Every structure is written in structure tokens, then in C-alpha cells.
Amino acid sequence: CCKRKAKAAALSLLPILTWLPSYPVKQYLLSDVVSGLSTGVVQLPQGLAYAMLAAVPPVYGLYSSFYPVLLYTFFGTSRHISVGTFAVISLMIGGVVVREAPDSMFYVLPANGTNMSAVLDVEARDARRVQVAVVLTTLVGIIQIVFGLLRFGFVAIYLTEPLVRGFTTAAAFHVVISQLKYLLGVETQRFSGPLSAVYSVKAVLSKITTTNVTTLLLGLSCLVFLYVIKHLNERYKKKLPIPIPGEIIVVIVSTGVSYGLSLSDDYSVAIVGKIPTGLLPPAAPLFSLLPSLVTDSFAVAIVGFSMGISLAKIFALKHGYSVDGNQELIALGLCNFISSFFQTFAITCSMSRSLVQESTGGKTQIAGLLASLMVLLVVVAIGFVFQPLPQTALAAIIMVNLLGMFKQFRDIPSLWRTSKIELAIWLVAYVASLLLGLDYGLLVAISFAILTVIYRTQSPKSSILGHVSSTGLYYDVDDYEEAAEYEGIKVFHSNSSIYFANSDLYVNTLKEKVILEKTNSNHSSPLKVCAKYKDEAVTHEVLPQNHMVEEQRNGQLGDRHCDLNSEEAVFLEPLNAVHSIVLDWTSASFIDSVGAKAIKQLCSDCSLLCFHLQGHLLSELDSLQFFTGNATTDMVFPTVHDAVLYCQHLLIPLHPLSSTR
């Protein structure tokens, strides 16, 4: 424990201390202010809209757009991402909330009559759903903090890009389906779990005759307007100093129209409703709900982190700085954990807001801090102004923000051309998440992705290597014309590790490519080695039965004659039989006890077995007690060429079978 280590720990936990003291005010402040204001006008309507996805009152979306953003300024390592509410995470939270607090739990009989039907207690339902969302967020924060402290930032690598894109595309469909009832102005039950998308569509279609025409027209108008604005922003992004804030325009105009025309009272248009002024005091979550939320919290924690770190790395690479995955886990965990005591739901990075923050010139998280202060201003001072805001306008905002995710369908033809396995991962993630729900769908997708890795290691590419003349290089004889085999020596290469799942396949493939060829060669026309002794010098030639001798040169046989009238000729074993096998293990990263036993059995079956492997693999074999009996360290060589030369050296001298004079 010293001053230097304490300072390093403080800088690691609070990355803001590394850049704030040297913040270049003149160069960065104006850009950050413009970026912060631009991001804030997007964050405000998205906070209101994504609260609907999380099945909690809209004001809690504003709370979730303030506290976590403020905290990330101090703990985050990315300078450009905008944290806060996000559609996919909000939808996952909404699914859990509806499952734990369904409408059926809150129907009560009116106090003034016994013959009347039960009435839904909306206030009690919303209070319970907020409690569930808050406890889930607390648990998500704890998981992310623990993962970060244990240096588990690598867990995001298991969410491969095709998996994430297929998953988010399915999530976009879930979001759109969940917003149909708000766009049409119909009242339906919200579903969760497997086939929830099917049930939701069925419920909306069954109520389509009760569509509120005013709500539909207003929603479609907002939808078209936002789509046009989004298209203009993309087309003229190089000419526009800042993107046109279409979302805040829709919020302001639709709120004014709703208030001026009394859409809620006269046309039964659903509105946001009461937005309390001010911030809520901190309160402890209802921890009795924890046991039923553990599995869901892991899914939300991992998906939230993977979304955040992927965008953070993209911006870091673009602008030439680095982000720490473990610190990002801790930062998101602290944002979720601390904020949950102030009645927020789980957050992560938003792609649309991050692009706004970066494209409008944001340099640091000062921009995010200013955006959160804008939200604070609305919550504290003017939140009541947005009470007449129609819910159909928020639905339109959500749908248009998902257009980028639907463009991910373009991945399918590209993956079909490049990688069928990655295409399968994309499709499985999409179909499973769409039909089974986001939680089970994510589990199925990750399991399938891991199975593809096992499949690839169980079915590795194997080949016979040949020597390239005048070099020490060995390549696949089927792919390289200049690679030629040595007579009687087979070099076998497989691009996989050897363990319990593929050891049998490895041995069987080796026998097919090498050992069976030895058997076949014994049934072919016998060739004999003619060893001629002249002047104490020994030469070796291959002598067929018709006395035509062929000599191997770079894997090809050339014609020569052998003079049988020499002083002494000794006929030896045929050379074309496989007498030596060299196993090239340069691609193997590990070997387990099952694989070691399978290879050791080969040592007793083959006349000579040599190995080329890396140093760490030699240590593993030694710890597995591989080098006993027939297997010794003398069979291990630093290169394939050394092993081949050793096999050639052992071929001489040969034991004579018969002799003639």
C-alpha cells in the first residue's frame, strides 16, 4: 500500500480525474455544450417513450435519464456514448414487470356496489410494477459490479456480432408489436414469455374494430413526420450543423394539439397523464422480490453491458483512445445500483443518442452531463407541461428509432455468401428471441453459438503435408503443387485441439489418411530396396520385379537401372510402406487426458510416431504423464522438418531380408 498505488486505484475507479484537470475549455466547451443540448432534446422524449416499454409511468423514464447519466460522467471511460434508457433493455424489463405484476392481480370490486364488475386498480398496479423494476435494476447493478471487480469484462465476447444483431432485430419486432395498441388506440392485455408476440398481435387484431381514429391519424402523422426528418438528417448530415430535433418537435407540437383540442376529454385519446414535479427521495428496494428475478437480471446485465461496450469500442477506435471493459462494467453497475434507490429502471448505451452526441461535436462526457441537466430541468420545473402528451406520439417515436435495427435483415444475404454457420447463429437468435421471448431467446442463442464452436472443433480440417523443395516449409499436398511427400513418411496436420469431444474423430481421420494407406501399399506391387556395396560406399535404389528401378525425387518417381552384377546386393523392406508418422500440432492450443490416451495408443500401434508442438503443450503432456512406456520426449521436435529428418535418419541402416552374390 503506497501513495502511487492509491492514486492509480483512484484514477482507475474515477476516470474523470484523468481528463477533467486538463480539460481544454476553449477547444472543447462550445462543442460539448452544443452536443449536450442536442442530446438532451432527444433524451427527453425517449425517456418518456421507453418508460412505456418498461411498463412503468413515464416520469420514471425521466428519472432514468438523469441519475445514471450523471453518474456515468464520473465512472465511465467512453467519451462519446450516451447512457440512459434503451428500447431493448426497457422491453426486457417490461416483460419481467408484467410477468411479476400482471393486470389480473389488481382487479378489485367497487366499494359502493356488489353487482358491478371488477375494476382495474391502475395506481396499485403501477406502484407494484415500479417496485419490481427497481429491484431488478438493483440486482442488475450488483451483478455488473461483481463481474467488473472479478475482471469478467470478457463475457461480452460470447455475444458474437451475428447473435447480437439477430437478437436486437427480434427485439425490434417485439417493441413494434407492443406499440401497436398505442398507435391504434385500443386497450389490450400485455403479454410476456414464450409466444408473447403472437398473443399480442392476436389481441390487437381482435380489438381492431374499436380503433380510435383520432389516435390513429395523430400517430400516423407523427410517424411520417419523424421518418422524413430522420431521412433528411441522414441525407444531409454533412451539411447540417446539428441534426433536426424531430422527436422534441413531435413532443411539443402533439402536446400543444392535445391540450388545445382537448383530445383526451373529447376524443378519448390516451395521454401520458400525471407527471409529478420534483425528484423522489431515496428509498430501499423491496428485496423480498429478489429470488424470482435472479435469472432475468443476469440476462439484462449481460445484454446491457454488451450493447454499451460494443458502441464504446467503435467510438474509441474512431477517435483514437481506449476503453476499459472491466471499468465499463463497474460504471454501468454503479449507475444501475445507485440510481435504483431513486426509483429508476436499468439503463445502457443508446445507439441513436450516442450518434447524436458524437456527430454534433461532443468531445467528452461533459455533453452527457449537460443532457442530464436538461432532463432535470424538465422534472423539477416544467414536467407538468407534458401531461397532455398523447401516447400515440411516443409510440411513433419508438417505432421510428427502430428503423436501423430492421436494416439488419441485410445481414442475411451477406452471411449466406461468407459464413453459413454465422448465418445460422443470426437466424437462431432471431427466431428464438421472437418466439420464446427475449430472455429464453438469448439463452437459446448463446447455447447454439457455443454448440457451433464445439461443432467446429469436432469437425476440423485435416491434411497431409508435403515438403517444399529447398525450404523447411510443409504445406497441404492437395493445395500446393510443389509440396511433395517423402517416401514412407506421412506428416499429418489438424487445425484443432485434441480433447474428449474430438479425440476419436482425430484418430479415425488419421487412420483414414495415413494408416490405411500403409495397408493398401502392402497389397500393391512389391518393391524392394537394392543396397549396393562398392568401394565401401553404399547406395540405395528401388528395384521392381521387372528390374526397372525408380527413384523418388520431390514426390515423383524417375526411371533408373540397377546393376545386379555388383559385388553384393541385399534386398530389404519395401520403401513405399508408411514407416513413420509425424503429427503437426502447431494449431493445437490444449490437449486433455482423453486425447492424450488416444494418441498414446497410436504410439503402440505405429512403428514410429513423432510430434511437432508448442512448449505449453509439451508441459500439458508431461503433467498428464504422457511420456511413459512407448512415448518419450525423444519423439518431440521443434519443427516438422526436424521430425522428418529424424525419420529419414532412422531408416538407415536397414536389416537385410535376403542376400545374393
TrEMBL record:
InterPro entries: S04_transporter_CS (IPR018045), SLC26A/SulP_dom (IPR011547), SLC26A/SulP_fam (IPR001902), STAS_dom (IPR002645), STAS_dom_sf (IPR036513). It is found in: Membrane. It holds the Pfam family STAS. The chain crosses the membrane at residues 48-74, 81-98, 130-150, 204-228, 240-261, 297-317, 329-347, 367-386, 392-409, 421-454. It is a multi-pass membrane protein. SUPFAM superfamilies: SpoIIaa-like (SSF52091). It comes from the Eukaryota. PROSITE patterns: SLC26A (PS01130), STAS (PS50801). Keywords: Membrane, Transmembrane, Transmembrane helix. GO terms for cellular component: membrane. Its main location: membrane. Residues 479-647 form the STAS domain. One of its GO terms (molecular function) is secondary active sulfate transmembrane transporter activity. This is STAS domain-containing protein. The gene is SLC26A5.
